[in-house]
Amino acid sequence: MPLWFIRGLRRGVITTRYPARPDSSAAALPTPPAFRSGQLTRDVADRIVAVCPSAALARRGDVLIFDAGTCTACGRCGEAAPDAVTSSGEWELTAAARSDLIKEIPILGERL
Amino acid sequence: MNEEEAAARQLREAIADQFGRSLHIRTLDTGSCAVCEQEIRLLSAPHYDLNRLGFFFTPAPRHADLLLVTGSMVRAFDAAARKTFEAIPGPKVVVATGACALGGVYPKDPFVHGNVGEVLPVDVWVPGCPPSPLALLHGLSVAVGRLAERTSGLTFIAGGDG
Amino acid sequence: MNPLDILYGAAGAWLAAAVAGSLAGSWRPGLRACCVLSGLGGAAAVAAGGWSLVYGDTRVVTPGGGATIVGGPVQLQLTSLAGVFVAVLGIVAIAIALYAPRYHQPAPGTAIYLAAYNLALLACLAVLAAGGMVTFLVAWESMSLACYLLILRHPRRTEVARGAFWFLALSEIGFLLVVAAFVILSVKTGATRLDVMAARGHLVPGGWRAAAYLLALTGFGFKAGLVPLHVWLPEAHPVAPADGSAFLSGVVVKLGTYGIALFAFRLVPVAGSWPGLVTMGTGAITAAIGILYALRERDIKRFLAYSTIENTGIIVTAFGAAMIFHAYRQPALAAFLLIAGLYHVANHGCYKTLLFLEAGVVEHATGTRDMDRLGGLVHRLPRSAVIAFIGTLGIAALPPLNGFVSEWLIFQGLFQGFRTGSHLTAILIVLAAATLGLTGGLAIYAFVRGFGIPYLGMPRTPKAAAAREPGQPVAGPALLAVACVALAIGAPVMLSALSRTARTVTGTSLGPLLLPGKLTVIPAHTDFSAFSPTYLTVFLAAACAVPVLIYLAGRPRAASVSVPVWDGGMVSFRPRMQYSAMTFSAPTRVTFDALYRPSVSVRRASDEDPAGRSGPVHYEAQVTPVFERYLYRPVVRAVEWLADAIRPMQSGDVNLYLLYVFLVILLAYLLGAV
User: Fold this and answer.
1) A19 within a domain of the structure (yes/no)
2) Do A and C share at least 3 CB pairs under 8 Å?
3) Which residues of chain A have a CB within 8 Å of the CB of B135?
4) Helix runs in C470-620, H state only
């Protein structure tokens, strides 16, 4: 009997049940950032806009425009501004309208 | 809102009716780095196994229901992409996947459109660089109406819903 | 009034055509007149041949009251065995008569050509109507010489002289052997009339009978194209004009098979089965080798020449199996296979001639015979393409056309090898059937290539793209296409006529063992199989109608979109992306490597460039000419060596010659004294 058959029997079923049940390995996936509006200032925003290699971030006045579709989850914005940027943990990002992926994050840091 | 939700649900049901049990996917690489293709190929592996959901890959556009596009739509590929799209008989769904296909990484320049939507009418967008196989499964399930999309409800603001 | 009388009319028409051709062939009206006469002769021949199938053998006639030729009497008799061949001769003559006016340019060479062609027709007729040995041999040799002139239509072009020489040389060797065979029979039976020779066949001792038959098989095999005696076919066919090649393949090669049939069934019915086994084995090997070499040819006419060799093999296999069954006392099966072989003769005469004439049209329209320089001719020569397609379906033995019917009959005869009762023979017959099966499959492959590469796809060169239909001959090939279809649908008629021929030749009446109903054919035994060509045709036509009906009944109600054929999304499809003739048949080259022994040479520009820069790559692949190299060249060298050894005798020294004279006189004295 081939060894793989025995190994397979021992290991059991490894196929994921996704999308019927959540998959535990999803926790390790790199995900786009989430922003803390309170920590964002215009300087911080400009800094993270400059550092994004994929042009996913832009600043328009007091609003940070974030295109979740263009984001590659590289993490450079998180390194540039660790207080303001954290990982969102969201990876189910499918959208039927492209505009649904473009989010506006208010820059509230200077108010505080 | 109720009307919109009802219409969305009707559309979802109509799509699920057509494609719910078996969907044939034709992949199209319009100039990617091939990592998206590796993730797509991983879908056939035992761990993710897209066949159990009724999805199948086919090389022939005539047999396909869904066109899965990766890459930043190099201009030299326009004619071939349009030909592939036209060769798929309706009803069909176009899914653009990967940051490149959605307009990131490579801006529009003389060689590249940057955004697949410039050439093909895209119905569903699946971000990621590369989109993990789980994200792809989510994207395909949304495309066939089995799952509702959640992105419109996300805010990407920490401490909020995002 | 008997069929022979109609043949006099045909002969007269052809003689008149030869005269008209030689006098007036250099002008267009003369060319037309010659062709009209030739066609009339052909019509007479068809009538005579068809009638003689049911009439039986005519009496032996000595025309002109005791005329002699070369010291021997002229004796004519039209047997029904020859009737099939006469009918084929006739229809080929009619088709070529319709074809020639548009094909040939009026020129001095045309006059000689037309005269030679019509004399060749006359000579073939004389061979088939020969009732005596001398008539047969004189006619045979005249036919060879006339065909030699035929091939030499353009003597100054390259390769023409070589092709004609091969034809003549092998014809002469064959003629020698045929003469030897006839001489043996004539001496042993004491007669020169063929029917008397046949009647007294039992007087010939067994060893001499076998020798005569083998000499005849080899001698006629040179003409028929049995392997390894076939080498003249691929050399002579490409260089002759298209209608000359058509005539060679359609009629002259068949005369070789007629000679074999004549000896096998009339003159030398040899007891014992081994001559039949030898014949059948040679036929089967010929068929396989013929089609294998055909698959490596780019020249359309060489390809068709090898296909002729394949079909000769099939016919000779059928004749050989008939001989075996006759030896094992299965007269019904022997008659059945004889019928099948003769049917294949008729079929091949029609579709091979058609294909050669179409090859001529293609050559005229595009200027080349090379398949790899053609393509897309179905759009530029539509009528020729349709006609060539019918011929291709016939020769590939696809239902419902005539090639399928005759090959089915041959297979059904061979499959009943178990009825011989001898295990070894049955196994050998099954091996022959398997070889024919291989041949049939390869023939379909070869003719998909032979029709698809030149006619379908995109033109590979500007010359092919510039081909035009107006002015090309269509009537002649169209007539042959109609004949192919008629032979298929009218198979029951043809078979009942041939069964009467078989009764005349072998004495066995098949009747209900062949055609129990009006339309069904069974292979000589009721418990084996059955087949109806007519029902098959009707069924296939109905089956083709089913998709049409489905479409009409269930036409989609949604708006339909017309989109181009999916071609992989290619932006510009270039002709050089298509299959070439050689790559299409590359799988056979790989599989049958041991037979072809291909020699491949690759020269890369980068190998010779000092800096290793890349450039053009020169690739050349050649099939080793096995028979020329290992059989003919040693024989030629041996003859040359012998000639060199004898040359000192002819030194030119008068004194030596005087010595010879003296020695001979001395010898004569001594012999006289003793």
Assistant:
1) no
2) no
3) 29, 91-94
4) 475-489, 491-506, 533-553, 581-584, 586-591, 593-596, 605-608
Among chain C, residues having any CB pair with chain B shorter than 8 Å are 561, 563-564, 566-567, 569-571
Q: Please report the sign of the dihedral spanned by the C-alpha atoms of residue C372, residue C374, residue C376, residue C381.
A: negative
Counting every residue written for chain B, the total comes to 162
Percent of chain C's residues with pLDDT above 90 = 61
Residues of B in contact with A101 (CB under 8 A): 102, 125, 127, 151
- Report the pLDDT averaged over residues C201-209: 86
- ipTM of the shown complex: 0.88
Q: Mind telling me how many Å the CA of B161 is from chain A's nearest CA?
A: 10
Quick: pLDDT tens for C569-613.
Answer: 887 778 888 899 999 999 998 899 888 888 888 999 888 888 878
Q: Do C566 and B60 lie within an 8 Å CB cutoff?
A: yes
C223 class by beta-carbon count within 10 Å (0-12 exposed, 13-18 middle, 19+ buried):
buried
* Residue-range domains of chain B with CATH: 2-147 (3.40.50.12280)
> pLDDT for C466-496, tens place per residue?
988 888 899 999 999 999 999 988 888 899 8
Instruction: Answer whether residue A88 is part of any domain.
Output: yes
Domain that includes residue C647, residue range: 626-673
Contact B80 C571 (CB under 8 A): yes
Residue A63 has phi, psi (to 5 degrees) of -125, 135
Predicted pLDDT at C107: 85
Are the C-beta atoms of A69 and B99 separated by less than 8 Å?
Answer: yes
pLDDT band per the 50, 70, 90 thresholds, residue C448: very high
Contact C147, C252 (CB under 8 A): yes
CA distance B31 to chain A (A): 16
Q: Position of tokens 């079929």?
A: C347
Range of the domain at A42: 30-111
What CATH code is carried by the domain that includes residue A41? Answer: 3.30.70.3270
Residue pairs between chains A and B whose CB atoms are closer than 8 Å: 144
pLDDT at C529: 86
Domain count, chain A: 1
Tokens of C299: 């020249």
- Of C190, C209, C227, the residue at which a domain comes to its end is C190
Coil vs helix vs strand at B157: strand
What pLDDT, on the 0 to 100 scale, is given for residue B161? 45
In a domain, A74, yes or no: yes
Neighbours of chain B (3+ CB pairs under 8 A): A, C
Number of domains in chain C: 2
Most C-contacting residue of B75, B83, B92 (CB-CB within 10 A), to test interface: B83
Q: Which of C17, C22, C16, C33 is nearest to C108 (CA)?
A: C22
A81 domain residue, yes or no: yes
The tens digit of pLDDT for each residue in C376-406 reads 999 999 999 999 999 999 999 998 899 999 9
- Between C86 and C563, name the one with better pLDDT: C86
Query: Chain A window 35-94: which residues touch B at a Cβ cutoff of 8 Å?
Result: 35-37, 53-56, 66-74, 86, 88, 90-94
- Say whether C566 and B61 touch across the interface (CB within 8 A): yes
Nearest to C569 among B62, B80, B90 (CB): B80
Who wins on pLDDT, C505 or C140? C140
pLDDT tens readout for residues C635-665: 999 999 999 999 888 888 899 999 999 999 9
Q: For C558, which residue in chain B has the nearest alpha carbon?
A: B90
Which segments of C367-422 does DSSP mark as H helices, in order?
Answer: 377-380, 382-395, 402-415
Q: Do C571 and B87 touch (CB under 8 A)?
A: no
Most confident among B127-131, C75-79, C554-558 (mean pLDDT):
B127-131
The last residue of a domain, from among C158, C190, C222: C190
Q: Residue C243 falls within a domain, yes or no?
A: no
